């Protein structure tokens, strides 16, 4: 039945070439749910470590596309990538990307939102909930031009932002 089974390199090339079809299929299945049409999105990123020490990162097979960087939320250095995920409050993934750990979070999210601008345009009044790592006036201005309202915690020297009390944990 299978006269030719590709080796690792050929399989990798085919998987990369199939990425647009896989994304399309995931979106077709996701659009069939009520969660897809939610106008509230949550964005965050997390490290995807491949190696932990700098010498290992340099000689690793992932050396061509993974970098060595610092994760402030985990207070550690690691070699690998960062996974960026934009999802609905119910957990339905909307956008995702893998990026180097040294790239600015705001740049990666901006690129994700610009690549899928038609998807953002389908949701007027979109509310995007992020953490403090996405704080920037220029970033917020460019998101508001896209019709996105950014909800994030205020920085230390910043006044309380509109909607910020919704982000605070309830006192017990």
Write up this protein:
By secondary structure, the chain is α/β, with parallel strands linked by helices. Helix content is about 30%, strand content about 25%. It contains five helices and six strands. Strands 1, 2, 3, 4, 5 and 6 form a six-stranded mixed β-sheet that branches. A hairpin with a 5-residue loop joins strand 3 and strand 4. The longest helix has 23 residues. It starts with 7 loop residues before the first helix and ends in a 21-residue tail after the last strand.
What topology emerges from the helices and strands here?
Blueprint: H1 8-30, E1 40-51, H2 54-59, E2 67-71, E3 76-87, E4 93-99, H3 105-115, H4 117-121, E5 126-129, H5 137-145, E6 148-151
Parallel strand pairs: 1-5, 5-6
Antiparallel strand pairs: 1-3, 2-3, 3-4
- Strands, total number: 6
The main sheet comes to:
6 strands, mixed
Derived from helix and strand composition plus strand pairing, the structural class reads alpha/beta
Shape: flat
**Alpha carbon gap, first and last residue:** 63 Å
Task: Bin the helical content.
Answer: 25-40%
Radius of gyration, taken over Cα atoms and rounded to an integer in Å = 19 Å
**Average pLDDT for all residues:** 81
The arrangement of helices and strands along the chain is HEHEEEHHEHE
Count of DSSP-assigned helices: 5
- The percentage of residues in β strands lies in 25-35%
* Assembly category: single chain
Which stretches are poorly predicted, pLDDT < 50 over at least 5 residues?
none
